[in-house]
Amino acid sequence: MWKVMALGAGFALLTTTAAAQPQCNDRKQILDLLAKKYQEAPVASGVTNNGGLVEVLTNAKGGTWTIIVTTPQGVSCLVAAGEGWRAMEQIAADPEA
Length: 97
Hints:
The protein is α+β, with helices and mostly antiparallel strands. The protein has one domain (2-83). It is built from two helices and five strands; from the N terminus they run αβαββββ. It has helices at residues 2-14, 27-38; strands at 24-26, 41-47, 53-58, 64-70, 75-83. Strands 1-5-4-3-2 form a five-stranded antiparallel β-sheet. A hairpin with a 5-residue loop joins strand 3 and strand 4. Helix 1 (2-14) packs across helix 2. The N and C termini lie far apart (39 Å).
């Protein structure tokens, strides 16, 4: 929870208007902030039905993680953040299933 509050405060400082969405900003600025403050980098991504980019970021030790969604216009928003990220082995789906 501390990370969400700290990120919210950081994003509020990044936004041009304090009243605007305090947890959204330009994707590059958010990635730079997460890299600098938490040493996080993207480890997974996917595209939503409406063209948004969902990214999971974590640090090398898996201590913290963040999920952001970026609109096609380049605006990224914090969706969730936490601690204790664990990568899981991807298992191929059984074609017979």
